[in-house]
């Protein structure tokens, strides 16, 4: 029998080791290394080139412009002493497009009218575009031409009278102030009413209710039917996030292996930025260490700079809207679906919005300190799993709130929205259920959460007494 030479044996061993190392390099199989270390919480720290893995063109950020985020969410039509809600996303977009094509020009200064004049202005025959919050008008130049020196005014409603005057009003309903503008020659509120009349069957009678922050909301006098929505889910790849932040720079990467599960907490960092990824909950957190990179002096700059960070990683293509919390210390970019806001239950992981946190500095500046956002986004709509859901009318909603110890005037907003259901089949699909949501202290609660005690009751008043007050005109008219 022919014996193997020593060189042949050595060569065979070297080839085997080479194949083994190649396997680890290609598949990054962390589990194999677990056989060679204790089953306890440990950490790996190494230096990684973040551009080593190419990402398919399939994964592309939504790349929505800021103009698409600073966009109206509701249309109110007032005709013949009656207000109507127009919950029709296509009609809303056609009116917003018309206004952007025929921009109005500011013609006056900020006005603070008397209570009587204010109610007359907001109750006239009109088309009204409503925004989620008050916005600086110099960021909405796609709707309004600014030929004044005004820089601080914010508004949350655009009122377009249908009397043929060509006037429009930018209204801050919280402060009860407005600025007047003029549509170009040949354009009046009648042009916008024509767009609304194309979907006249979608008009829903509504009444106005005052809110705790001075704003008001229009709620339907009849029940509404809104379908549930089911979508498959996808996850933003880790390398796509890392490359967006660090590019080709070499970065510290640490992986912490949990004792309780086989999941990892992953951190990347350099001198200016630290990012944290958790495969367990699919939430991205970015801490900005060098805050001077993202300093702002006013609200418009805050919005621009915060969205510039969100836009890098936002894959949600169904729509976003800007909101704010705690005196603009947190910028919230709410996800939308079919024209409705999406909310996660207040006691669960926030998959329905991205949040940018600011810290105040000297000379009135603020700086970005943290961004948190979900890495989940929608893929395919499963049409045959949608189910119609009937939602309460305004009077029924008011009754249920009263039974829980609240009134609509205790809240800062009341909206129909989609609730992101927590059972996602290991991030494979998600179900959205339409519900009434009410905002208090910068948090949105579903009606069912309030009924189950998520908020402490503020008052206990007999329902019949409330109805009597209502009939006596405690609430405004149109």
Explain this structure to me?
The chain has 478 residues and is an alpha+beta fold. The chain has 11 helices and 28 strands. The chain has helices spanning 6-27, 30-33, 66-69, 89-101, 115-123, 189-197, 238-246, 299-311, 394-403, 447-451, 463-471; strands spanning 42-49, 74-79, 82-86, 104-106, 126-136, 144-145, 154-161, 167-172, 177-182, 203-210, 216-220, 224-227, 229-235, 250-257, 264-269, 273-278, 283-288, 295-296, 320-325, 330-337, 340-343, 353-360, 366-374, 376-381, 388-391, 413-420, 429-440, 443-446. The strands form 3 sheets. The chain has a 16-stranded mixed β-sheet that branches. The protein has a 10-stranded mixed β-sheet with strand order 6-4-9-8-7-5-2-3-10-11, with helices on both faces. Helix 4 (89-101) runs antiparallel to helix 6 (189-197). The radius of gyration is 27 Å and the shape is globular.
Oligomer: single chain
Shape: globular
Helix proportion: 10-25%
The averaged pLDDT comes out at: 84
Determine the number of helices (DSSP H or I, runs of at least 4 residues).
11
Rg result: 27 Å
How far apart are the first and last residues' alpha carbons, in Å? Answer: 104 Å
Strand-pairing-aware structural class: alpha+beta
The percent range for strand residues is: 35-45%
Count of β-strands: 28
Summarize the biggest pleated sheet: 16 strands, mixed
| Low-pLDDT regions | 26-56, 461-466, 472-478
């Amino acid at each position: 029998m022919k014996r193997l030479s020593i060189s042949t044996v050595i060569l065979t061993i070297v080839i085997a080791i080479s194949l083994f190392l190649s396997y680890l390099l290609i598949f990054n199989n962390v589990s194999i290394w677990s056989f060679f270390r204790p089953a306890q919480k440990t950490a790996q720290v190494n230096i990684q080139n973040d551009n080593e893995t190419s990402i398919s063109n399939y994964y592309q950020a939504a790349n929505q412009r800021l103009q698409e985020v600073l966009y109206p969410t509701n249309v109110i039509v007032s005709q013949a002493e009656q207000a109507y809600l127009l919950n029709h996303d296509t009609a809303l977009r056609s009116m917003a497009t018309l206004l952007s094509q025929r921009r109005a020009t500011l013609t006056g200064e900020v006005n603070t009218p008397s209570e009587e004049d204010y109610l007359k202005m907001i109750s006239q025959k009109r088309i009204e575009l409503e925004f989620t919050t008050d916005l600086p008008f110099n960021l909405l130049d796609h709707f309004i031409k600014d030929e004044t020196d005004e820089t601080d005014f914010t508004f949350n409603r655009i009122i377009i009278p249908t009397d043929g005057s060509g006037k429009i009003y930018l209204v801050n309903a919280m402060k009860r102030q407005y600025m007047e503008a003029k549509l170009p020659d040949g354009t009046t509120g009648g042009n916008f009413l024509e767009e609304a009349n194309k979907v006249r069957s979608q008009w829903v009678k509504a009444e106005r209710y005052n809110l705790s922050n001075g704003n008001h909301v229009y709620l339907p006098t009849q029940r509404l039917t809104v379908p549930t929505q089911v979508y498959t889910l996808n996850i933003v790849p880790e390398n796509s996030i890392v490359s967006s932040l660090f590019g080709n720079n070499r970065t510290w990467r640490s992986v912490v292996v949990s004792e309780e599960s086989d999941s990892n907490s992953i951190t990347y960092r350099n001198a200016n930025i630290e990012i944290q990824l958790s495969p367990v909950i699919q939430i991205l957190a970015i801490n900005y260490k060098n805050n001077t990179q993202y300093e702002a002096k006013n609200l418009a700059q805050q919005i621009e700079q915060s969205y510039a960070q969100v836009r890098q990683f936002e894959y949600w293509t169904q729509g976003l809207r800007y909101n704010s919390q705690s005196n603009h210390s947190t910028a919230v970019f709410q996800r939308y679906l079919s024209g409705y806001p999406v909310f996660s239950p207040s006691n669960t992981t926030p998959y329905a919005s991205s949040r940018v946190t600011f810290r105040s500095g000297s000379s009135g500046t603020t700086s970005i300190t943290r961004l948190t956002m979900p890495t989940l986004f929608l893929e395919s709509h499963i049409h045959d799993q949608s189910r119609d859901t009937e939602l309460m009318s305004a009077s029924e909603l008011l009754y249920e709130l009263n039974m829980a110890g609240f009134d609509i005037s205790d809240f800062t907003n009341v909206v129909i929205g989609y609730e992101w259901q927590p059972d996602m089949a290991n991030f494979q699909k998600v179900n959205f259920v339409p519900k009434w949501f009410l905002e208090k202290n910068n948090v949105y609660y579903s009606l069912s959460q309030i009924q189950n005690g998520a908020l402490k009751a503020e008052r206990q008043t007999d329902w019949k007494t409330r109805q009597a007050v209502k009939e006596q005109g405690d609430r405004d008219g149109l």
